[in-house]
Amino acid sequence: MSDDPTAPDHPTAAEPSAADELEVVDDGPISMERLSDYLDAGREPYDPEIEADPSALAQLAALTRLRAMTASIVAADAAAEPAPDPSWIAGVMSRVRLESRAGREIPLASSDPRSTLHITEGAVRALIREAGDSVPGAVVISCGIVGDVAEPGAVVRVEVAISALFGTAVQELADEVRRAVLDDLGRQTELVVEALDVTVRDVHQLDTDGGPR
Amino acid sequence: MSDRDDAPGREPLTDAELSLLAAELGALAAGCAGVLRVQARPGFGSLVREAIGGLSAVVGGGSGESDGGADPSSTAAAVASGRPVPLVGVAVSAAETRVTLDIAVGDDVSGPAVAREVAARLLDRVAAEPLPPASVDVRIVGIS
Amino acid sequence: MAVDLAGAADGTLASRAAEGDERAFEVLLRRHLGLMTAYATRLTSSRADASDAVQEASLVIWRELPQLQAPDAVRGWMMRIVSRKAYDLIRSRRLADDVDELEVPSTSGAVDDPERVAASTDAMGALRSALDRLPAKQREVWTLREVGGESYADIAETTGTSVTAVRGLLARARETLTREMEAWR
Question: Looking at beta carbons, which residues of chain A come within 8 Å of C173?
Answer without folding.
Answer: none
